[in-house]
Amino acid sequence: MAEHTSCCHGQVGQRLRLIAMGTEHGNSSIDLGGMSMRGISTGGIRTCLELPSWKLLVDVGAVDYHQVPANTVLITHGHLDHLGGIANHIALRELMGQKPGRYILPPEILADVEDLLAVWRRLDKAPLQAELIPLAPGEVLELDRSKQVVPFAVDHRVVSQGYLLYSRISKLLPVFEGLPGDDLARLRKSGQEITFEVNRVEFAFSGDTRIEGLLDNKKALTAKRLVMEATFLDERVGVEKARSVGHIHLDEIREHADAFECEHLVLTHLSLRYDRRQAWDLIRKVLPADLIDRTVIL
Ligand SMILES: [Zn+2]
Ligand SMILES: [Zn+2]
User: Fold this and answer.
1) From ligand 2's centre to the CA of 174, what distance in Å?
2) In angstroms, what CA-CA distances link 56 with 71, 81, 205, 234?
3) 81: CA distance to ligand 1 center in Å?
4) How far apart are the CA of 53 and the centre of ligand 1, in A?
5) pLDDT means over runs of 10, the chain (298 residues)
6) Of 43, 150, 250, 269, most Cβ neighbours within 10 A?
7) Which ligand sits nearest to residue 154's alpha carbon?
8) Is residue 170, in this structure, part of any structural domain at all?
């Protein structure tokens, strides 16, 4: 679970009823500098973010049939709004004739997730085959020759980790910068090495965390695209309360605005208290203009 606050139950109840009318955050596709991301993320309800070009999901709090081609699922932590759809995702892949997916998760929750799937196999009488891959912060998993995943530790109420997604790109050696294309082509043809490879952080996903989980990780803050939680936005749940339940408050993002050097900032996991217009009004009121220009909500 994500929120656990005792105040404003009436409003949350009202918002829960409104989901049925299609007002939950997300379920939309956004373009982030040439890479699209889609999915849904509402604090305490469900989070499942999809990068179609990477065939990858981040968290699987709920799953829909169109997310079945994603054969890699990065799980940040064991709260139900992030993990509750795992058996469903595995079953849907089997139903649609797909190979077992791989599910990357914090090593501390591996045994519990294995137990969970064993129970589902008994109940469902289905194979529910899945490759569970424990990956600790700092360990590297090669998705393919040009893509890597590296978890980083965050600070939530339970064991939780964010993920950095690296792509390996070729860059021109500085000594050849400014040369015309024809000359570069000639050099390449002659066997001269004119490029070198670098790893770039294309995405950072925070999962659920207090703000320290990001502030302690420069690579996440400087990723090309940072997808972070911002569960609480105004005084209805203040900073102290947000921190006590392991989440980030918008006021903390403002306080540390200079640290967010990413090109694109995606705020997710917003509480149901705020509808999209309200959320955006609050964000615009609180964050500095330079950061607003780079910010979207999902
Ligand atoms: Zn959550
Ligand atoms: Zn959580």
Assistant:
1) 45
2) 6, 18, 12, 32
3) 5
4) 25
5) 44 45 59 94 96 96 89 98 97 95 98 98 96 98 95 98 95 90 90 91 98 96 97 96 98 98 97 93 96 95
6) 269
7) 2
8) yes
Does 14 reside within a domain?
A: no
* Order of strands, sheet of 295-297, starting from the edge strand that comes earlier in the sequence: 141-144, 147-153, 161-172, 195-205, 225-229, 264-268, 295-297
User: How far is the centre of ligand 2, averaged over its atoms, from the C-alpha of 249 (Å)?
Assistant: 14
Domain that holds residue 248: 25-297
Contacts of 15 (CB under 8 A, 6+ apart): 23, 272, 273, 275
Sign of CA dihedral 108, 265, 267, 63: negative
- Cα 211 to ligand 1 centre (Å): 14
CA distances from 187 to 108, 179, 194, 295 (A): 51, 10, 7, 42
**Among 295, 292, 291, 250, CA closest to 270:** 250
Residue 124: how many CA atoms within 13 Å on its side-chain side? 17
CATH no. for residue 219? 3.60.15.10
Q: Can you tell me which residue has the tokens 């020759």?
A: 145
